[in-house]
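seq:
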Amino acid sequence: MSGGLKPGTHLLVVLGIGALASLGLYYLPKTLLSSDLKTEVQPAVSKSNNHTVLTIIQKESLLAIRNTNSSEIEKLKSLSNYFAAENIFDSSAYFLAQLAEKEPSEVAWLKTGDSYYQAYSLSLDPLKREELGELARKTYQKVLEINPQQLQAKTNSAMTYASSASPMQTIMMLRQILDENPQYVP
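struct:
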């Protein structure tokens, strides 16, 4: 060989560099720190309790909404709109439900049911999905008590059964809707 390393030595050098790189990665910090705030960056959803973890900015925004001199109804509307804008639909639905309790109407309950349905549709956790589906069905039932002909409430309520223990109920309910109005597209 002309001035190079022996094949065995070459292999040892590569293995040594790999071992050092592995040790270096092992001793890197396990959390990220913001240079301004020196706070730990948290994931959007905690794995232990499956609740949304809010950022500091989100917490400050919510605190500002809660500390306004608005009426309780205006605060509920603001909180619901804030969570809907942040795509946290289960929290939005929670505040819409409180608002619908204070000012019950078909529109208020339908908006609440639609928000629960949106959260149900986006949920990946089977237990949370079932819970949100049940809340959506209960809310849509309140809409149907006010207006039994509300086809959107019937359709979305039927769709929540698709991933439940009784998926055939979805088909039966959708057939009833088509019997009532064959032209209803959703």
